[in-house]
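Appendix B, example 12.
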Amino acid sequence: MSSQEIPEENLPVAQDDEHGHGTVAVADEKNPFANPGLPPHEHRVQDIDEEAAKRSERVVAFLFTLSMLATVGFIASYVAIPNDKAIYVFPIGHISALNFALGMTLGIALFTIGAGAVHWARTLMSDVEIADERHPIEAPPEVKAKVMADFRDGARESALGRRKLIRNTMFGALALFPLSGVMLLRDLGPLPGTKLRHTLWSKGKLLVNMNTNEPLRASDVVVGSLTFAKPEGLEEHDEDFQKEIAKTALMIVRLQPDNIKDKKELEWSHEGIVAYSKICTHVGCPISLYEQQTHHVLCPCHQSTFDLSDGARVIFGPAGHALPQLRIGVNADGYLEALGDFEEPVGPAFWERG
């Protein structure tokens, strides 16, 4: 229904003189450029017919309610749909069912909030165009008072207080929608618990040469050499190889027992053979540079330097603490074996370190 179809006596009284609708200023000497004015204001059917306004209100409320349902669907999909399930969607083909469900529900939740707000503004809020003169950046008190008055008028014209159905459903949609982001925090994974404190090393695990993939004998390690080792049973084709080797990789160095300054290091060694974590305690780079004369090892990433003859303490660089040492011994067959796990977490310091 257009304003032309409404009887003239039902139309609101025109106020062209207040907002400048339908009026045109005339140019003169002081104002050489005439104000073209604003076109006559045409009333919408919702301005005239309360039933039409109620219909628009119900449409907006429906859109906000649909947003709430879509948000609930997003959460339900995130929890219920396995991340390895695939579905066929024409014409895209086979895609992840979880990604499809999350994308659809999140898109609907966002779209319906926006569509509801636009429909509310276009059909129920005031659509009277108001022209205002430019003014200095610094607002005088009367302008501030006018702004506050305009704000109050806008709040009144939005009918937020009177249209309770719209208000309540909008608040519901806006309150539920952020839960979608909260659910995404689940992908941060389960809390690590004590996983970072433990590795595959345990009592009796053989030290395996990472180059030859053969168990190491004490006689295989000569003074001045640097050998890299992994625990027995960890193979490169294992699914979790990269995750585990990042915690278990060892540096094996043989020193003269008289050159070992740290008492604990000497006790945890075997005939001068010491085993230290290969993972730098700065940001986790693999240490690979060894200086035989000084017994120093250097991390190539940021030049953290550790003294293997003195408990692998930090003598240079940004690393925060010494390399963890693995206690080793020799079994009945002459092979080097671990006598337990590291006593502290390997790699960079982390927030759970006690």
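The longest strand covers residues 226-231. The CA atoms of residues 211 and 239 lie 20 Å apart.
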